[in-house]
Amino acid sequence: MATIQKLPDILASQVAAGEVVERPASVVKELVENSIDAGAAEVLVEIRRGGAAMIRVSDNGSGMTREDAVLSLERHATSKLRDVNGLRQILTLGFRGEAVPSIASVSRFRMKTRTAEDVAGTEIEVEGGMMQPPRDAGCPVGTVIEVRDLFFNVPARRKFLKAETTESAHIEHQLRLHALAASAVRFRFRKDEREVFDMPGGMTRLDRLRDLLGTTLGRELIPLAPSRAPGIGLEGFVLPGLHARKGRRHQCVFLNGRPVEDQAISRGLIEGFRGALADGLHPSAWLWIEMNPEWVDVNVHPAKREVRLRRPHELREAVAEAVMAGIGEASRPKIPARPSHLDHEIRRTQPTEIPPNPQARPPVPLPASGVRPVWRPVAVDQALPLPAAENSFPLKPSRPDFREIGTLLGRFALLESADGLVVLDPRAARERILYERWLRSGDGRIHVQPLLMPIVLQPGPREVDLMLRHRELFAAAGFELDEFGGGTIRISAAPDFVKAEDAGRLLVEVVDDLAEGASSSHRFAHEKLAKVLARRAALMEAPRPEEAMALLDSLFDCELPYCGADGRPTLTEISRSEMERRFGINPGQ
Asked: Taking the C-alpha atoms of 275, 277, 281 and 284 in order, what is their torsion angle to the nearest 10 degrees?
């Protein structure tokens, strides 16, 4: 008897679903892509309980006949690919014919569809891969697909789903990507019977991007220069280097209408900023790239997120040149050739602003970023402790016997030890002191500065979810956060050592750390927040080297006095034997 057997169709579809359907957002992605391929001018997405209970995607596209509707539930059945030559010129978002049957194999699935030529529509129900006979149904032109109880028959996969808020945030992020990729399509999103957003169709890419980012960031967008590379069309916008982030989540790249991730493009963005970004930071960018489809292989990733390029170096150089030209043009002083009171307001546009589009909707003013609070040096033993974290430090070392001998470059303190020269970095020392005292209950204390004008942030759906999940932790650290609706966070108070204009950026930095980390648990978030706040407080205080001896007492009360919160050394020693070796002195001379 043969040991190799052909898998049943249902089992094969469930295996394929393991690659295609990772989470509810994967279902939304595949169904919305099919709606766009069908020429829909309007797409409505409704979810319940983070998509695990129900996902419904409705469109007004071309719809399907009964025969096509039945075939769409067969594996490897598609209307978008005919032969091998077509695989080299993929212009549609979907083409494999695996998504719909894979989704139907792990859910309770129902589809209603009708073409403009048909009088009655078709309704098909599938439960766990078992299809019921199709029947007539009354429905408008287009397709409605409803997915209920996702992974009900694959309990192991269902256990890996995250919290409802997290899954909802992933779905919203996916929809925002599609909204940017297809700005001519109207997108509506409802979550648990509440409308989250309604983006009208027919918008320009800039208008839609400003709608998603908000007025404040929308004003700072820098348009990129058109690409001069042959066979490559490029349009896009970047934010100034001030808004660079630690991850690439705020780099949205659309290649031939498809959201993709590619190292060559990300590298080109960094090269375009040449020296304007700190190490480890990535610029916020939105790029729409058109290339010859024969130069792009989209059939290299199960979820089609990654592509393989035939000419990656040319694309990287084209992106870098466009970014450099765009930043250079934005930084060039705008000197009017002939001043006139009629165009005075337009010519006052700042270098990083985009001249207003007369056909665009006027921006809605948001509250100002807040009144800059009066700064006071933060004392390490002031009020409002952070929650305690369970830390296991080694035993504290005893304080060495140092003697102060001077300062170096106005930054470092020079000390003499029993065995040589010690160089102390007071800023790193203060950072370690604040970090450990914030981690311990009752030691780290700060004053809260209420903001007369709250700061409004639109960091993105996943970032909003993280902020709200750790709201109590942020409150203990001096940040008062509220959900403001529409994916917006309002900051009404901040620690007194944080300037009002820096509070939003500091929060985004903390959330980036949480999102990039392997865990978003309370303890992990607490440690990350304490680390970032300690670094910012140390920068604000700028301890003086001449105060080194007083600082050493607090430093050696810490569990790990020899390194800062980020691992940098607080002090380093050049031993006597090392100096004798360098000067060629024999021991004992």
From this structure: -120
